[in-house]
Amino acid sequence: MTALLIDSSNTICRAYYGRAGGDASAVPQVLRDLVWTLQLRFQAEHVIAALDDSRNFRQCLYENYKKQRSPKPADLTELLRQADELMSAAGAIPALAPNHEADDVMGTLARRAPGRVVIVTSDRDLFSAVTATVQVYEPRAKTVITVADVQARFGVSPERIPLFKSLCGDSSDNIPGVRGLGEKAASVMAAQCGSVDEVFDRVSSFERRYQKALQAADPSEIRLFHELATVRTDAPVTRVSLRR
């Protein structure tokens, strides 16, 4: 049994800017074709479209979360507002978790699923959800990401991705990380340590230039970044009742 979990906002944006060429009226058909193609490719028995709530707990924890993103065109904004209807019409079951993002919906459903799961998104946050039975399909590259792929790309296992991001930052989510640490340093530290606290407890074991960066950082702030970067697996997911 295979469950296909689709990141609705990510997919609608790609459809709008990609095959639809900025024509909002073409997006519904693009979505229908996409869902059908993916369901056929992965032989999925279940297709679920994960939705973003209008407000989420990360914005409450950190007011600058994703604030750097440019405003979307008005017609794309309207498409995203109608994500539940659009994805339902395309053949997927819309699912939402109040006060959470689509990532948390997918992370939670992936944890619950009894069989194979394929998460469809170009957002690397979901790499942390990859396991022996959970894979991520990157639509742009048309590539399936496995545990080995995550390890090869980032130098850490999937469950260490939030720690990796909390250290080096993530510009797409406006998470600064530790000033002076890049991905290489974050990869080494996240591979050796299991938590933010362990990283700061072991400062003296790292290269001197990295020691200085960590000593200048506020551990409580990095713990916050870790929470922001962690995909929830216990979100209160519900099926969406479509608006009429």
UniProtKB/TrEMBL annotation:
SMART domains according to UniProt: 53EXOc (SM00475)
- Which keywords label this protein? Hydrolase, Nuclease
Q: Which InterPro entries match?
A: 5-3_exonucl_a-hlix_arch_N (IPR020046), 5-3_exonuclease (IPR002421), 5-3_exonuclease_C_sf (IPR036279), DNA_polI_H3TH (IPR020045), FEN (IPR038969), PIN-like_dom_sf (IPR029060)
Source superkingdom = Bacteria
Domain 5'-3' exonuclease spans what residues? Answer: 1-241
Question: Pfam families annotated for this entry?
Answer: 5_3_exonuc, 5_3_exonuc_N
Q: What is this protein called?
A: 5'-3' exonuclease domain-containing protein
Which organism encodes this protein?
A: Deinococcus malanensis
